[in-house]
Request: fold
Amino acid sequence: MRIANLRLLTLGSVGALIVAGLLWESVLAPLRPGGSLLVLKVLPLALLMPGLWMGRVRSVQVLSLLIQLYLTEGLVRASDRGLASQLAWLETLLATLAFVGALAWARQARIDANATKS
Reply:
């Protein structure tokens, strides 16, 4: 798979995860009525987006470590009831896509770097 496609997969899933997290914790199914401070959970992802957008491998590596927290949260909160459960499964799916995309992107970047050295 081309690195451009892996970049789009990763950027798209992280962007969707940010939007879903903001909507989930502010409007759709917040822990407390009126929203909660859990909307801040998307801040680390938002801070990584410029580096991901510019194709920095270090940002991809940080994302691959950070995204596991979102995957874990999605799996834990999937036992909630109603819309919160569906949103948790969505978070799990998006985090999985971002993780797979980030790993494949970093791997392909390493392969490309090694090929240019030869």
Residues 3-113 form one domain. The chain has one domain: 3-113.
